[in-house]
Amino acid sequence: MIDQDIPHLSEVTPSVLRALGVPGSTGSLDLPGARSACVLLVDGLGWELLAEYAADAPALAALRSSRLRVGYPATTAAGLAAIGTGVASGEHGLAGYTFEVPGVGVVNALSWRDHDTGADLRGPLPPEEAQPLPTTFARARAAGLDSRVVSAARFADTALTRAVLRDGDYRGVHALGDLAAAVLDALDTERCFCWGYHGDLDLLGHVYGPGSRPWRMQLRQVDRLVESLVAGLPPGALLAVVADHGMITLDDTAVDLEEEPGLLAGVRAFGGEVRARHVYTEPGAVDDVLAAWRAILGDRAWVAGREQAIEEGWFGPRVADHVRPRIGDVVAAARGRSGMLRGLAEPVESSLIGQHGSFTPAEQLVPLAVAYG
């Protein structure tokens, strides 16, 4: 498990708002005052990966940087929600890549569809109700700041955007060039708070593996992006580069849940992902399921009941009442480079080389790299 004294990703945006002079902002990170600021999130940029491949990212490596922990689960939906709300998963409620909402089903947080049937869930589960907390962007706007979201044009009206990035003026972009231009335009604006997003490093890490040649070539492009932004920073502007999680390459200790009858007995639904599973049990079966998962997985995973996981702070210091049932009756976080596949039910996810979600330093630790104009 990761040292809890390392600052959490959710502290980044409150700290940036404090640097911008927003009253009541409580972030604890040491950032000097600024007139405009952008938080650029590079999906999948782990601290350990950046250290190992620093030669491919000299501009990033040259910035003043420190470590953050992303919390559990170490996955994009939870990370984006931590940035968008300033709290951990137990409060914002996006408790996994997939999670069960009572009366609705198992929700895929990225597509906002039923994970089993593919049905659109925006009607039965409006994003603003699934994540009702005010966003960072709303707080910035209420304080008189120009509040912007710079991300791929195709994400502009998605349910996830509505859940965790609402109240930001969305600037849809198509490639690295207009991403850089839109971020610099925001930083040129007096009293502007901006969040930018780049997702291709994570994509190539999943497909080819973190540290592979395609991944390293993409890291070099990310570094050119950061280099361009740093070179263009106007006076009084702050750029903070962060990530939502790191990544590991699975090894042959991964288990396919569908091929282990003992891991299916008493289970009515699965959530989470390969490295971080929610297990929803049949009535009265939780103790048997918990015992079976611990016995069968052994040292391949940390396995806990819902209440134990909450008490141990897996989902942050507080868990809201409406979030509790989204957490599995049993939760399992993969150790080492193992995983919990579902080859038939999740063929795409189970085929990916690179994975994330659990508690290892490779997944949990990300950089906070800072530059000032």
From TrEMBL:
SUPFAM superfamilies the UniProt entry points to: Alkaline phosphatase-like
Pfam families per record: Phosphodiest (PF01663)
- The protein here is known as Putative AlkP superfamily pyrophosphatase or phosphodiesterase
- What is the organism of origin for this protein? Prauserella shujinwangii
